[in-house]
Design brief:
single chain, 301 residues, 10-stranded antiparallel beta sheet
Amino acid sequence: MAKVFQEWIGRKCDAWDRIASAPMRGLAATLGHPPRGWIPGDPVPLLAHWLYFLDFVRNGELGDDGHPRRAGFLPAVTLARRMWAGSRVRFFEPMRIGDKVGRVSTIVDIESKSGRTGDLVFVTLEHEVMRDDGTVLIREQQDIVYRDAPAPGVQRAASPASAAPVEPAIEVEPPPTWRREVMPASSLLFRYSALTFNSHRIHYDRDYATHIEGYPGLVVHGPLQATLMLDQVARVAPRDRVTSFSFERRAPLFDDAPLFVCGEPAADGRSVTLATRGPGGAGDMGGVAALETPLTGPAKT
């Protein structure tokens, strides 16, 4: 199938945005941080670039699942379901309030696979975020997986994203050094969907998520879990600079039970292995954050 889409490889699109303070106030409230003022020049949190360059598609251009219909920049893969499988992100300089920034996106690879749930197509994008003076701030490779819709009446408890071609994350062995409980209430999922203008119905429409997609509840966003991971690093070690972060999705987490954000610093303090885990240690996502200098924050939370 991927051969059909080879002509898409190398395609580019760009977008521009101004780094406004309102999304940062919304993100802080969503993550449970105290309110603060944001002034021009303030650096924004890592992964906050996902709250900008949003695709404001009209309601009439959405598919049944809430995603934009297949057309335009991304290949028109006919498989019914789409999911963010993982990313590898490098941070060079912070985005700051007031910056005018651009993002150039390129399709760098398309690959077909067969998994236990059927055919899969993986699309790898590269996003380069830069200031208007040409300074590159962030470079990200993002993996998107397309799959068939589940058969009627079939309940799914695992994600095909485990087959994604991303760098494997080292497992966090319990008990982790860092561990914080987060309740993924529907209000949290709604707020993150609103901040990212994400209308994928599995995150807010319970009837759709359970009866159509076959999940046992609302699905916690992968990017939200990744954001919680780096937010945990910032809480524990606010003086340390993260230079890169990679993560992969493995199995979904839902809104019916707490999730735990876990971290294990490497022995040399130059990286932190991160994970989100559900009850009983079931994990949805694993990742690794690399640090510019050895960890200086406290060892435990």
